[in-house]
Fold these 2 entries.
Entry 1:
Amino acid sequence: MSPLAIPELLDQILRHLIDYPKSKGLLACALVRRSWKHPAQSNLYWHVLLAIYPGEPDLHKLDRPCTLLLHTLRSSPHLARLIRSLELYPEGLSSGNLTALLNTPIPMLHTLYLAYRWPTELSVTGMKQLLARPTLKHVQIRCSSGDSEDIFQSLFGSLAQSVTEMEFFPGRMFPLVKDTPIVVYRGAPLRIDSFRLKGGFSAGIFWLESVTTRRYLDFSHLRRLSLGVDYHYLQTPLFVAAARTIEVLKLDTRHDTGFVDISPYIHIKSLYISCEEDDDIWTAASIIESIRPECTSRIQKLGITGPLSDAGMAAIREHVADTLPVLLDVLEVQYVEPPQPVGERSPIPPEYFRRNPSSRYRLGNYF
């Protein structure tokens, strides 16, 4: 029997063709034979990306790929069930296409990435409708500029109760006007198992205070926490209260962060530290030093990654050997290439456009 007759093996091979130029590889594979059609289409439509650089003059350049997508889904409705993940910049669509996309059934959608800059009333309404879809499990919201309180409140108040994993990348947020009444969220707070927060400290603190006041989210059962840029987040009451339930902690370091204390997080099983350069290893060292000795037996993996030199990787191994040698058996130091900029004019950080290579493609490339 041919290895390609095994569905699992065929699916793994096809995943490597997702980033093939213009996704022509997957389109060709769908025409090879009947048994290849569904696996090829599943990989082709798994993640739909409708995002552009918001700084470019033609904000409606997504209209053509969106129109072609809508036409395809109308002519072949069964393909909508293959879409599991949607990445969308609503301001890049005309009102007609945005409305049509919102009215298109996507029954199996479980992951939603939203980015906005200066949203219109229609785009805010559209984002609220998408966030309320009952099949959603994972949501990322990224704002790349100032965010007003009413938009912030309406988006988080629209989250479906099925959401358990969330990422939030706040931009600069407008402060509340003095004596502005605080509207408390009356719905049941979402129980979040996995949370990622990345952004400036002032914006993050403002957001955390808003979440705490309005009771949008319930972190009492939080198991995975990922933080970027500023470690003052770790000391906020919201996360300190959840410290005893967190099992996976991921931190992005900077050399100017200073000493970082993770001693309240006593049930960590996996700790991942991402460095930007060799100077960041001192921040990573302070994180490792703050681990309580009695907690080291629980740690099953200590991963440190980044564009580190051989000397930097050797230094971090030596530091672990000197301070907590028991962790040497679970330590993994790995070199990772530094991220490449995606566009100088893009106000959205480059990470937004670099999804996992095994699950992303640009929609307009193959329609």
Note: The longest strand covers residues 111-116.
Entry 2:
Amino acid sequence: MLVKSFISLVLFIAICEGFMFNKKPTCTIKSFKGGKDFSGGKIFANASFHPYLKTIGSVAKACKVQVHVKSSWLELKTPTQLVLTSEMQQALGRAIVFDIRDQKGGAVCNDICMKKGAVRTIPEAQCLIDNLQKKGLKFQEPNILHDGHVSKIGLAEAEKLKVELQKLCKEKKPK
């Protein structure tokens, strides 16, 4: 009798915890407040990419530049919309498209400069790119910084994540 009561109690607790603590998946795209080391538009990114954004800000400060964000999370018209492989990181909220500005907002290096390899001839730009790569970020020409997540999980898995994330974020828009 005591054993049956104990088993019933354990089952009851397990069932209640399943209902009470079973969290529904939510949109992981969150606004990032970059401070004076960033300029440009509002930054939206996957919460797991925020530590990388903090790293980008601290490296920019050390290199005496601003990261001018041209775009971040890529919100799609439909969750199943096809994206270029080069855009997948943004569709997952794990990348930014950027230019490099001086601390007063003047242009240092834009996408044309970065595409032509001139980034290696401008000390501030080279400082930023080299130090971000040392910290684990990936620089993709012409002007994308990302964490390499798609390479780690593969395109098929990235596509599944993209669809799921885009659906969740359509239901509840990031702020």
Note: The helical segments are 2-21, 50-62, 88-91, 111-115, 123-134, 149-153, 155-171.
